[in-house]
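Schema walk-through. Below, the input block comes first and the output block second. Nothing else is stored per chain. Lengths vary across the set, and this one has 186 residues.
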Amino acid sequence: MSRTTAAAAAPAAPADAATAADAATAARERVFAMMDSDGDRVVTRHDYLSRIDRTVLATGRTEDDPLVVTARAEGVKAWGAMDADADGKLTFDEYNAWVGADKFDNVCRFALGALFDLADADGDGALDKGEFTVLRTALNNPPENAAAAFDALDADGDGRVGRDAYLASIRAYIVGDSSPMGEVLY
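--- output ---
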């Protein structure tokens, strides 16, 4: 076998760590911009928690709904973890230094899952395209991006996106792994 043939037959090397880090940073910049509702390059406590307000309003839930109570509690916990210096604001550098797989698994997953649950009108653990679009537009994504993200996640074409697949896709995106949903959503 020639050297060229052997090289072509060898399995591809894993993604370069620097490339994954660059992808994660780029993804985090997009997520940060989405959370920065007023575009001033700082996410304030109000910016972050207003995501819950918009989702509650968009889903028609009431403040006494246990899912709203949970979403608010998880949002406050997540904000407290992100705003480590308790100054009420988060710069991109602070967010980028904080966020990662561990923080997603132990903090963000719960806050994002609670928002997903608000949009899950029948409580079956999956969103249809309308519910998904309501959720993602309440979180500051353009409706056309939300629709494309739904299509990317609905791999089996059943018209539903499950909670676990949704959260896994967001996690993959922020750590720099492949996320078809993230690539079209942000």
